[in-house]
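User: Can you predict the 3D structure for this chain?
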Amino acid sequence: MRRDLRFTHTADKQLAIIENDPALVDVLKQVRKTLGYLETNLRAKSLQNHEFESLTRRYGKKIFEAYVQQNTPGAYRIFWHYGPDEIEKNGDRIAIITIVAITPHPES
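Assistant: Here is the predicted structure, written as structure tokens:
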């Protein structure tokens, strides 16, 4: 099932920073690939999607973490949640994934 992506203001700003930093050209390519998987195949093994419980508790809705990079210091992650879905004028439902943040993995 295809889903449409919506970005929070924070995620939008983070993506713009990555897009405008020549040193992050490889990260940008990986972020775009991950976003593509979030739109088309949430079960893609490379995403390693899982609930990020501390954010779920903080925001009161299930927040998930998808891997952009692996085995990299400060590896980038995308944090996201389902919805809110939208309804087209003809009554069809549009499944939405909201991108909350695109950031290096938080340190413990």
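Helices lie at 9-19, 25-40, 53-59. The chain has a mean pLDDT of 90.
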